[in-house]
């Protein structure tokens, strides 16, 4: 088998390389070039070719002077912090509970994973109904005896909307992240817990000294997925609030920026996309480096 792979590997990998080049590398290179031009979507302002419509860093300067972009950036950072905490805490708790279950473990895994199969827009509209009708009119607002102002009209307030979108994102992805944590928990030898119990360690001491260090590889993966996924959230933001009430995030800002200018300034929108890519790349790489170091220390 190894001889077969050595012989045919280069040939078999050619389709994947071609597909990656055509679908990812070439469009990325074109988008990067267009971000330095006066691109209007269907034509280049002042020229028939992109090199004749170069404007240098003017698009990037406009982006950083854009109040809407900076507001969306700050709001995205706030949401990401809240969502990453919600997702990781919830998924780890679910994994630890499922691990304790004897029979029917597979049923619970399926139930918790199922929300991850739903599309972003469909899920966003479902949760929009929950927040606006179930929460605001039936459970926590209106004439309900259980009056909780914070859980009422959550989508009309930017601070409440952060929590609302984090709740929805956690409900969707916690089951998937749970599987990663569950796999990590299953790889921890039970002998370590037994030895700690003999030494009189409490449940918290065992969690802090055994579970967390041994789960660092899983933390690396889950933190990367939750961090990048929170930054890139678009469909849910569009379905829940459409960016109104100061709840616009970066992905939605890039989408709407082409609609708010006449003619549409696709060059500036592409500059926003490049900045967005660099931001996610830098933060994700730093996160992976930090958690990888923790793995080594553990």
Automatic annotation (TrEMBL):
Q: Residue ranges of the ABC transmembrane type-1 domain?
A: 73-287
Q: Which InterPro entries match?
A: ABC_transporter_permease, MetI-like, MetI-like_sf
List all membrane-crossing ranges: 12-36, 72-96, 117-141, 161-182, 212-231, 269-290
**Keywords associated with the record:** Cell membrane, Membrane, Transmembrane, Transmembrane helix, Transport
Q: Give Gene Ontology CC terms.
A: plasma membrane
Where is the protein found, in the record's own terms?
A: Cell membrane
Q: Which GO terms describe its biological process?
A: transmembrane transport
Q: How does it sit in the membrane?
A: Multi-pass membrane protein
* Keyword NADP appears in the UniProt entry: no
Q: Report the domain of life of the source organism.
A: Bacteria
- Would the keyword Oxidoreductase be found if you checked this record's keyword annotation? no
Give the family, as the similarity comment puts it: Belongs to the binding-protein-dependent transport system permease family.
Protein name as annotated: ABC transmembrane type-1 domain-containing protein
What are the top taxonomic ranks of the organism?
Answer: Bacteria, Bacillati, Bacillota, Clostridia, Lachnospirales
């Amino acid at each position: 088998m190894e001889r077969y792979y050595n012989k045919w590997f280069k040939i078999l990998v050619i389709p994947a390389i071609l597909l990656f080049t055509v679908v990812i590398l070439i469009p990325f290179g074109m988008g990067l070039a267009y971000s330095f031009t006066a691109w209007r979507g269907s034509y280049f302002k002042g020229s028939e070719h992109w090199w004749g419509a170069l404007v240098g860093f003017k698009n990037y300067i406009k982006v950083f002077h854009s109040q809407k972009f900076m507001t969306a950036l700050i709001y995205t950072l706030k949401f990401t912090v809240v969502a990453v905490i919600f997702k990781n805490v919830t998924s780890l708790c679910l994994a630890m509970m499922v691990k304790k279950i004897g029979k029917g473990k597979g049923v619970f895994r399926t139930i918790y994973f199922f929300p991850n199969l739903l599309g972003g827009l469909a899920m966003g509209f479902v949760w929009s109904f929950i927040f606006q009708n179930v929460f605001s009119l039936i459970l926590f607002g209106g004439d309900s005896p259980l009056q909780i102002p914070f859980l009422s009209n959550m989508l009309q307030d930017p601070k409440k909307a952060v929590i609302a979108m984090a709740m929805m994102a956690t409900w969707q992805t916690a089951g998937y992240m749970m599987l990663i944590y569950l796999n990590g928990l299953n790889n921890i030898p039970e002998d370590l817990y037994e030895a700690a119990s003999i030494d009189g360690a409490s449940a918290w001491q065992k969690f802090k000294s055994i579970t967390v260090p041994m789960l660092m590889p899983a933390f690396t993966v889950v933190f990367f997925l939750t961090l990048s996924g929170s930054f890139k959230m678009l469909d849910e933001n569009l379905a829940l609030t459409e960016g109104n009430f100061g709840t616009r995030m970066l992905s939605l800002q890039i989408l709407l920026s082409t609609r708010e200018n006449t003619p549409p300034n696709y060059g500036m929108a592409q500059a926003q996309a490049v900045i967005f890519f660099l931001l996610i790349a830098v933060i994700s790489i730093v996160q992976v480096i930090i958690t990888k170091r923790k793995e080594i220390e553990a």
